[in-house]
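Q: Could you fold this chain for me?
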Amino acid sequence: MKPLNLNDAVEFVEQNIGDFHKRRADSLRKLKLSQVLERKNPYLFRAKNITTAQDLVKLLLEAHLSSQEESVFGEFLETLAIFVCKKVFDGKKSSAEGIDLEFERDKILYIVSIKSGPNWGNSSQLKKMVDNFKKAQRILRTSNSKVNIQAVNGCCYGRENQSNKNDYQKLCGQEFWEFISGNERLYIDIIEPLGYRAKERNQEFSEEYGRILNLFTNEFFQGFCTNGNIDWEKLIEFNSGKKKK
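A: Sure. Below is the predicted structure, expressed as structure tokens.
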């Protein structure tokens, strides 16, 4: 184990956080109104008494961005966790299916599946993770049958009251970051550099968001409004009607 130089982690964040902002803006530029209209539940919007084109389009965009940002930022945190663990425990990105990180600590080989937060999957997704852990353990033991391998589901934020899940350990928030770094304050220390040039980048994003909102609102008004009102029948047909042959 090598003590973590916090400056290395700060520098990594500042050099790479820009990719998160770029990807969230790119996801807007590549988006088409038809895509979000097909994915979202129009009955829900009707039940919420949405009456203007802009309000409906704004809700569509925010729902899209929320899921996109969670995914993209989760990938960023995963790369940060691997970087930190490499500095401290010579950890590495795993080549095994469904495993993100491998490293040795206290004579134990850990295989880690990294997720953003604790409530990330349903029962089938959890089963898939456990299957991936077992498969990776079998493969790793072919070269050394006596190696002590432990599986870990690491979550970048949140808490887990019961860490022992029988087939694996679940470590969240402070426990996870301390586990891969040996630093009990790392989960706090990485907050400040995440805001590196955030005001400038968010201003650029806000301008792009406003542009897309205006374009989509106009497109929606032209396609799904009649006499200035949302034409719910036309919208439902687009979203759920049989495709014309």
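A (continued): The chain is about 60% helix and 10% strand.
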